[in-house]
Structures are given as C-alpha cells and as structure tokens.
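The instructor's notes for this session suggest beginning with a concrete chain rather than abstract definitions. Hand out the sequence below and ask the class to guess, before any prediction is shown, which regions might be ordered.
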Amino acid sequence: MNRKSFIRKSLFGACFFLTTPVSGETFKHDKNELRDDNILGFNHIPNQNSTIMNNFVLHKAETRGDANHGWLHSRHTFSFANYYNPERMRFGVLRVLNDDWVAPGKGFGTHPHDNMEIISIPLEGDLEHKDSMGNVAVIRHGDVQVMSAGTGVTHSEYNKNSDQPVKFLQIWIFPKKQNIAPRYDQITLNLNERINRLQQILSPDEKDAGVWIHQDAWFHLGRFDKGFSAVYRLKKPGNGVYAFSIKGDVTIEDIALNERDGLGIRDIDEFRITADSQDAEFLLMEVPMTL
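After discussion, reveal the predicted structure:
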C-alpha cells in the first residue's frame, strides 16, 4: 500500500476541546478555524511527516504535538486543539492519544463531550473525576477509566494532590453507535498480570476482562523483561493496532520503538513484540480501521 492510500484510509478531521485549569470555561477548536499563523498552535513544534513503511506508520516521540500551558503539558500523537497535522488526524477509529502532565492542584474545568468513548490510563499520581452523571472518583496507576459520552456529558478532571504532578494517557475512540446513554466505569488491575504477558484491559464485551466500550476494540498492556517476546494475534479481521511505548524500548517485527514512540500496524493478522530494555512497558490498541 502506498503512502497516499494509507493516509486516505486512516486519517480524517474532527472537532476537539481544550479547557482552562479548573475554571469551567470551554473553548471549541475546529481545524477549519486555524489560520496560517496559528496552525502550530501555542508552544507546538513544526508539523512533521509520518514515517510510512508498507503496513506500518511510525510516529517518533519528538514529532508529536507539544502544548505546554504551564499547568498542563500535553504531547499529542494526533491532531488536537491547536495542533493540526493533516497526516495525523486519526488511526482508524482511534481519534486522540494525549500524553498529559498536570501540575499539582490543577486540572481540566467542566467541559462537554458527546458520541466518544474516552479512556484514561494513569501513569503516576492521583486524578480526580467528577461528571454530570453524579460520579466522583479518583484513579491511580493500575486503574483504567472509561466514559461513554453518548448523548452528552460534562465532566472535570484535576490533580487531587497539591505536592506532586499527575501523568496519564487520554485516549478517544469513535463509538460504533451514536447517541447511546452515557456511562462511566473504572477498574483496578493486577499489575503482576502484565509481567511478561499481554494483560487485556479493554474490550467490546462487558463480561470480558477489563473495561468495555461501544466499539470492536481491544487494549492490552505489557511489561516485559529484556529479551522477552510475545506474539499478538488480532481479534477481528480488518482491525489494526496502534502500539505505544510507555517506558523503555521494544521492537515490533524489525521496527525499533523508543520511549513514547507510536506505531500504527494494519493489514496483518499477527506480529511479534520484543523488549529491548528491562521492564519495558507498552500499550497495544486494536481498533477498527473504518467508521
């Protein structure tokens, strides 16, 4: 598959939201509102092309969008807020992969979402969540949170601690059904179950391991010893996988990923992932490639 064909099948535009720290104010950003002088956004690096190789698209960590607002430092794998890169709009139904750092005591003011599956994976610290469904919860490393926005929901998230930052991955998935009833869920995982194993943390089946969402998607986390390898076999024909190296270095087939690199994989049924450093941690997100 050539480069243009890959992009055409994998990427398209959408709207997104950015909120001020615990203020309740919301600003809507659409890619069509961006002018030539602000396409790079605030404190963003210049847009860089993706590296596309047959069935793979490689996004090196340093080529992601970089938004530093003081209270929030966010790295965007895909176009988000004022970071707009036409080559990085989505991977299949995976719309957002933000690597967020939030200062002590700060956070996202109340803001709306609809028709999106929103998954949060804490890496460090404590993140407090409040929403219009009446949920108040704190998520920590080892937890996974999901919010199906459906017909519409408002929520806020902020760093519960005054003495340490919070780090988490914010992931948005387009649902396969529109205007469903909003729902919230979170679970605490056994961290030992991902040591030299692929621990399932999300699926389309509420009776299966992990949280569930309204999409034919499966997420797995792994923490491998150096030299350990495993084969991932896709759950559904036609799906692709976006791999994200959380910590350390891994190799997928013959492509090396360093910390915070991402790799989109499509049109193959299975692949091998090998840890190149001790305690290498990674996230595999299998998603449909079409809406």
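Then share the key points. Residues 1-43 have pLDDT under 50 and may be disordered. The first helix runs from residue 3 to 10.
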